[in-house]
């Protein structure tokens, strides 16, 4: 029996392997970058963005945060995430 759900939003606590094992591969997922990582930036942010993109590369995926952007987040960190996502989508990440 279906639920009628068209996509699932993921919290920051979700584990990609669990999501992929328990949700149909055709079900789109959205999220779940931790906004604190976005705030901090650096190599940990880059690695997590790349890991999430790779984890959901075989299913529809809307890249997003698990919660909203913190007001003090540097715009350069947001720009970096957009850069990584675009490169991944082009196949050059």
Number of helix segments?
4
Write the H/E string, N to C. EHEHHEH
Q: Strand percentage, roughly?
A: 5-15%
Oligomer: single chain
Give the rounded overall mean pLDDT: 92
Total number of strands: 3
Rg (C-alpha, Å): 14 Å
Q: Per the principal axes of the C-alpha atoms, what is the gross shape?
A: globular
Poorly predicted tracts of residues? none
Our measurement of the CA-to-CA distance between the termini, rounded to an integer number of angstroms, reads 39 Å
* Class per helix and strand makeup: mainly alpha
For the biggest sheet, the summary is: 3 strands, parallel
Helix content: 40-55%
- Order the strands across the largest sheet as they lie in space: 1-2-3
Task: Please give the structural blueprint.
Layout: E1 8-9, H1 16-22, E2 29-30, H2 35-40, H3 42-55, E3 61-62, H4 75-90
Helix pairs in contact: 3-4
Description:
It is a single chain. The chain has 93 residues and is mostly helical. Strand 1, helix 1 and strand 2 form a beta-alpha-beta unit. It is 46% helix and 6% strand. Helix 3 packs parallel to helix 4 (75-90). The mean pLDDT is 92. The chain is globular and about 40 Å long. The N and C termini lie far apart (39 Å). The longest helix is centred in the C-terminal third of the chain and has 16 residues, at 75-90. Strands 1-2-3 form a 3-stranded parallel sheet, with no helix packed on it. It has helices at 16-22, 35-40, 42-55, 75-90, and strands at 8-9, 29-30, 61-62. It is built from 4 helices and 3 strands.
């Amino acid at each position: 029996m279906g639920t009628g759900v068209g996509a699932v939003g993921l919290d920051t606590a979700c584990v990609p392997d669990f999501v992929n094992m328990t949700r149909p591969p055709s079900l789109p997922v959205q999220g779940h970058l931790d906004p604190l990582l976005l705030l901090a930036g650096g190599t940990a942010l880059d690695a997590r963005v790349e890991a999430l993109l790779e984890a959901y590369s075989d299913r529809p995926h809307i890249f997003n945060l698990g919660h909203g952007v913190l007001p003090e987040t540097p715009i350069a960190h947001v720009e970096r995430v957009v850069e990584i996502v675009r490169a991944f989508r082009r196949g050059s990440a």
